[in-house]
Amino acid sequence: MAVTNEKKVVVSELKEKLAAAQGAVLINYRGITVAQDTKLRRIFREAGVDYFVAKNTMIRLAAAQAGIEGLEPVLEGPSAIALSVSDPVIPAKIISEFMKEAKVISIKSGILEGQVIDEAKVKALADLPSREVLVSRVLAGMQSPIAGFVNVLQGNIRNLVYTLEAVRQQKESA
User: Fold this and answer.
1) Residue 162 and residue 82 share a domain
2) How far is the C-alpha of 32 from the C-alpha of 41, rounded, in Å?
3) Within a 10 A sphere around the Cβ of 76, how many other Cβ atoms?
4) H or E segment to which residue 81 belongs
5) Across the chain, what does the average pLDDT equal?
6) pTM
């Protein structure tokens, strides 16, 4: 099989994208309408996610060159790939949400920081809360013991003030 220069360029670009991607999702887009595809592309573009259709042989070659192993079993039928350099979760979230509307597409596999993950793990990744929510939960968890400690200290001071007030009232009435 002769690989033309054009194909080499495509494989090289795809390899660079796969190597740089924090997260990627491979989907089977068979049955999706043009309107749905346009909408999906717009959503990905707004989120800063690269989305494109590629031949399975190109994906296979690029993955091998990028050192990603384990994609071969899912590279059958039409394949599209969505990758994000900044957020490993966002492609999975977008695909998962979009699958509720366009039931014809399906997840084939995913890549998380260079490791191939199966469909179940991609769906679990999509169910994770956003980064901002996780950060706020961590901060709330860190703040909770401190707030409790402050309340305990305030309770002792408050009890001392109540006791002194009771003593003052008792002395005034006597």
Assistant:
1) no
2) 12
3) 10
4) strand 80-84
5) 84
6) 0.68
